[in-house]
Backbone:
């Protein structure tokens, strides 16, 4: 059936990006509380760690989680890699999971680009820039297939990277154009993927929490102390531009919150209410 009747809040799609070791994978543990609170329907969380993704040691463990890691061989056949990754993902999203997570979109995209360039990318050879478009389309089809599944909650993660704020004007040096943080995907894919998700947020670590009234910044005597706070930036600001949430009240979600999916889902549910 090509069309379905969509209900608000029935399917939620998030993209979390940030630098290495900023809590993207560790935060997935909070999904256990989401399941226990009944905020999403279904059973369990399926987590797929893509090819070349190294952060598998921090993958969540427990009865609520099933994790799948792709072991990349030397000199891999990129067509076979993409087929195996897609087969596993498309099989999992047909099951009654409450949540599906794909870890490491930035490591998956180059395989699509290598296929589009006929193997030139991984051979270190030059290729025509127009081939990026072919890779973008194939990658978007993967994102779209997962997006359109019946899984209540889908989460993608990727690293961050700087993207130019605008194209260079005639005679302008590209290096002088302001650059801001977006998901680490080449060219238009970095910004296009933002439109594929209901919420995009940035993982970071701060010595002083920006979350107003944060109890984790105060000890038992009421004294404020400095510590590492793993936070999500949910609204644009500073060097981070590639974040935001859909919905009538998407801008009402605080700029900074702690890395907690239960807290985020409650805020997002309010944001999408008519």
Residues:
């Amino acid at each position: 059936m090509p069309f379905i009747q969509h209900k608000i809040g029935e399917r939620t799609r998030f993209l979390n990006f940030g630098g290495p070791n900023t809590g993207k994978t560790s935060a997935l543990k909070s999904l256990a509380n989401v399941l226990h609170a009944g905020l999403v329907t279904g059973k369990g969380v399926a987590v797929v760690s893509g090819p070349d993704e190294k952060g598998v040691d921090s993958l969540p463990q427990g009865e609520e989680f099933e994790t799948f890691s792709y072991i990349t061989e030397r000199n891999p056949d990129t067509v076979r890699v993409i087929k195996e990754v897609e087969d596993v993902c498309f099989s999992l999203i047909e099951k009654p999971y409450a949540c599906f997570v794909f870890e490491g979109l930035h490591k998956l995209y180059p395989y699509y680009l290598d296929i589009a360039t006929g193997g030139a990318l991984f051979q270190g050879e030059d290729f025509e820039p127009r081939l990026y478009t072919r890779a973008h389309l194939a990658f978007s089809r993967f994102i779209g297939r997962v997006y359109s599944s019946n899984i209540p909650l889908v989460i993608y993660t990727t690293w961050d990277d700087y993207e130019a704020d605008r194209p260079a004007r005639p005679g302008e040096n590209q290096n002088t154009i302001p650059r801001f943080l977006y998901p680490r995907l080449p060219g238009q894919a970095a910004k296009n993927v933002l439109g594929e998700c209901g919420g995009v947020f940035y993982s970071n670590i701060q010595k002083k929490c920006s979350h107003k009234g944060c109890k984790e910044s105060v000890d038992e005597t009421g004294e404020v102390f400095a510590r590492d706070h793993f936070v999500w930036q949910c609204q644009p600001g500073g060097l981070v531009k590639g974040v935001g949430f859909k919905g009538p009240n998407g801008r009402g979600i605080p700029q900074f919150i702690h890395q907690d999916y239960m807290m985020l889902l409650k805020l997002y549910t309010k944001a999408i209410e008519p």
User: Anything to note?
Assistant: Residues 131-147 form the longest helix (17 residues). The domain at 12-202+234-271 is CATH 3.40.50 (Rossmann fold).
